[in-house]
Amino acid sequence: MSRVRMLGILTIFLCALVLQVSCLECYVCENQEDNSEKCVKSIKTCDFNQDVCLTEIKWGSTPYWSQGTKKQYYISKRCSNKTECATNRQRYMPLCTYIWYQDWVCGDCCQGDRCNYYIIICHSFYNPIDSGAVQITQSNLDMVLASNEIVFINFYAEWCKFSNILMPIFDDAAVEVAKAGYDPGKVVMGKVDCDQEGAIATRFHITKYPTLKLFRNGFPAKKEYRGQRSVEAFAEFIKKQLTDPIVQFGSLKELHDLSEDKRHIIGYMDRRDQPEYEVLRKVAASLKDECLFHAGFGDASQQMHPPGQPIIVFRTDKRTSIEPDETYHGSMLNFDELYTWVQQKCIPIVREITFENAEELTEEGLPFLILFHHPSDTESVKKYKEIIMNELESEKQNINFLTADGVRFEHPLHHLGKSVSDLPLIAIDSFRHMYLFPKYSDMEKPGKLKQFLQDLYSGKLHREFHYGTEAPASDNDIKVTTPPESTFKKLAPSKNRYTLLRDEL
Ligand SMILES: *[C@@H]1O[C@H](CO)[C@@H](O)[C@H](O)[C@H]1NC(C)=O
C-alpha cells in the first residue's frame, strides 16, 4: 500500500470522525429582546471542539442596569464547550434569581442540535397564544411566581365537573390577556393540576376545585377570586390588578382633605417616570386595601423634598391619632424594604373583626386572639392594644390579634358559656376550638397573655380541656371534656361548596 493511499484513507477516516463528533448546530443571537427571530432562526455549525450550546438570559434595563426603570429580556445564544459553559453557569448562579423587580442573569448549557431553543422555553418563555394558561408544576412554580408581578392560577382536578367547565374559559381568558400586550414580567395566567401536583395544592391550602388564586409580587392575595367566571370578567380583573393604584395630587392643599379615618402613604417626587415611583407603585398594588396611596410630581410637591431626592411619608388615621407624618428612611429602590415598612405602617397589629371582614381574616390562616368587649367600652380596647404592642408584637407571625363587638358577636360568647354581662373577655379561636383566657384582669399581669399563647402552641390548652389541669390520681379519675368548638371557622369560605352570596357561578 503506498504511503499516499494510506494518508488518503486516514484523512477520510478522520473527517468522518470529526463530522460525527462535533457537527453540532446551535442557534446564535446576541442581546435579543425575546426568544424569536434571530434566536430561533440563525443557526451556526459549531467548531469541532465545541460540544454544547450556551444560552444567556438577562433581565434588566438599558442602557444602565438600574433598579426601577423599564426592564426587558436580553437573550444571547452561541456554541460553546462543556468547560466554558459550566464555568459561565457557575458564575451566574448567584445572580440567577428570576426576580422580576431586580436585574438578573442566568446561564444554561445543553447538548443536542439547536437545543438552546428549548432551554429557553422551559425556563421562562412560553408561547401564550399557543396553549392558553401556562401549566405550572413544582419545577417551574417558583420561577413563574418570582418573574411576574401578577400570576393568576386556576387550581383544578380533572375529575371535577366544574373544573372542566372552567378550563376552556380560563384558557381563552389567558389568550385574551396575552393579546392585551402587557409588558413581559407583568402577568401570567397559569393552571395547576392538583392531582399531579399535590405538594403545590397543599402549600396553598387548596381544598376545592376549581380554586382561582391571584399572586402578586410572589405572594398569594388574601382573598381567592370569587367574581364571575367569564373571559371578559377574567380579562377585566387582570386589567384592574395592573391599574396604577396611586392617586396623583395636583397641589399640597389637596393633602389637607385626605379622609381622616384612613391611613395614607404619600410620595413627594420629581417625575412619574423615575425608578422610585415604579417601586412605590408595586408596593401600593400589594397593599392598596390597607392604605391609600398618593403621589405628587414637580411643582405639586417641590416644597416637600430636595430636587432629585423623593420622599415617602406615612400619615396615620387622624381620627384616632395626632402623630405627625412619619418619613421612610430606607432605600426607595429596594422593593422588599419599602414593602416591609409600608406593611408595618398600614396593617395595624390589632384589628377589629366584623361580619364583613371575617372571611378574609380567616383566610390568613392564623388562630385568633380576640378581645370581646361591649361596644361602649373603648377603655379595654385601648389597654389590650397597648399590651399587645408592648409585649406581643413578636407573636404577630403566629397569631391574629383582634377585637370584636361582644354584642354583635354574642353567639361565640354562648359557646364559651358566657354572655354579654361577662364582657370584656379574651379568647383564642384556633379554628378547631375556642379557649377562654381564664381571668380578664390577668391580661395586665406581665407575661400572662404571652403564656396563654405559648400554651396554645404547645397543645397544653387542648390537653387541659380534655383532662383537666391536675395530673389524675388514677385512670378512673380522668374526666374527659371537650373544649367548645370554633365558631369562627364557620365564617371561613366553605370547603365543600361555593358561597352563593357572590356571582361566581
Ligand atoms: C472551551 O472554550 C474556551 C473558550 O473558547 C477555550 O478557551 C477552551 O480551551 C475550550 N476548552 C476545551 C476543553 O475545548
Automatic annotation (TrEMBL):
Keyword 4Fe-4S on entry: no
One term under GO cellular component: endoplasmic reticulum-Golgi intermediate compartment
Keywords: Signal
Gene Ontology biological process terms in this record: protein folding
Residue ranges of the TM segments: none
Domain (Thioredoxin): residue spans on this chain: 123-243
Signal peptide start and end residues: 1-23
UniProt cross-references to InterPro entries, sorted A to Z: ERP44, ERp44_PDI_b_1, ERp44_PDI_b_2, Snake_toxin-like_sf, Thioredoxin-like_sf, Thioredoxin_domain
Top-rank taxon: Eukaryota
One Gene Ontology molecular-function label: protein disulfide isomerase activity
Pfam families named among the record's database cross-references: Thioredoxin, Thioredoxin_6
Protein name: (African queen) hypothetical protein
Protein's organism: Danaus chrysippus (African queen)
